[in-house]
Amino acid sequence: MFIAFEGGDGAGKTTQIDLLRARLTAQGRDVVVTREPGGTELGVSIRQVLLHGDDVAPRAEALLFAADRAHHVATVVRPALQRGAVVLQDRYLDSSVAYQGAGRQLDPVEIKRLSLWATEDLLPDLTVLLDVTAHDGRARRGAVHDRLESEEDDFHNRVREHYLQLAAADPDRYLVVDASLPREEIAAIVAERVERA
Ligand code: TYD
Q1: Tens digit of pLDDT for each residue in 157-184?
Q2: Ligand 1 within 6 A of 70 CB?
Q3: Domain residue spans in the chain?
Q4: Angstrom distances, CA of residue 26 to CA of 5, 21, 38, 127
Q5: Closest Cα partner for 95 from 140, 50, 55, 56?
Q6: Is 47 in the pocket of ligand 1 (CB under 6 A)?
Q7: Whole-structure pTM value
Q8: Residue 53: alpha-carbon gap to chain centroid
């Protein structure tokens, strides 16, 4: 089973992944926790360039995220799924669709096509969208800002709206949770949905 966690910066994805990992591990499941960008050695280099390097042209940014994803899926995610593990992933293809497609205003349909090519059409079984406003996200992530985080609120509002559209268009594959709820409450909602899936 492949579960992706998505949402704006500061939504609390990492916390929720940790809580779900603990729950599934306690049930004896083989759980792999990973992330994009940066889920492989190559990905760590790409992440550094993307988030902490100099300015990157929007199309180059989209291609670098897609390159990270292609390598990550081929060498980490598919092998884990093939051996029957549950993969919990911090960000996947919808991050590109929302950030590069809607945020950078490249065409979301083209960005999705690029990632599908990169991953040979691998889609999550479930995507958990932790919905956070631009304002709350900024407040929650504190003072440290990477290149994407430091975009203005308009950018983050476009990202959020696009995530919500993606989820509304395909409710069977998405769970949308209000990221401002207490973390234990979010964890219970997520666990209930995962156990039904
Ligand atoms: P993330 O790892 O969630 O940041 P942090 O470690 O600070 O919590 O994500 C890094 C940034 O990269 C985030 O601002 C979203 C952005 N991003 C994209 O723009 N496109 C993508 O395809 C992915 C995977 C991430």
Answers
A1: 999 999 999 999 999 999 999 999 999 9
A2: no
A3: 2-196
A4: 20, 8, 27, 22
A5: 50
A6: no
A7: 0.97
A8: 21
Helices 41-52/58-72 angle, 10° precision: 160
Whether ligand 1 lies within 6 angstroms of the CB of 99 is answered as yes
Whether ligand 1 lies within 6 angstroms of the CB of 95 is answered as: yes
Distance CA 87, CA 76 (A): 10
Q: Check the CA dihedral 86-90-105-167 and report its sign.
A: positive
Which one, of 125, 132, 118, lies nearest residue 164 by Cα?
Answer: 132
pLDDT of 94 above 80: yes
From the CA of 28, how far away is ligand 1's center (Å)?
30
User: pLDDT tens, 12-51?
Assistant: 999 999 999 999 999 999 999 999 999 999 999 999 999 9
How many whole angstroms separate alpha carbon 184 and alpha carbon 197?
A: 20
* CATH class entry, domain 2-196: alpha beta
Name the band, by pLDDT with cuts 50, 70 and 90, for residue 131.
very high
DSSP designation for 55: -
CB-based contact 186:179 (threshold 8 Å): yes
Atom of ligand 1 nearest to the CA of 149: 14
Please name the residue whose Cα sits nearest to atom 14 of ligand 1: 148
Report whether residue 101 contacts ligand 1, using a CB cutoff of 6 Å: no
pLDDT of residue 170: 97
In the predicted structure, residue 1 carries a pLDDT above the cut 80: yes
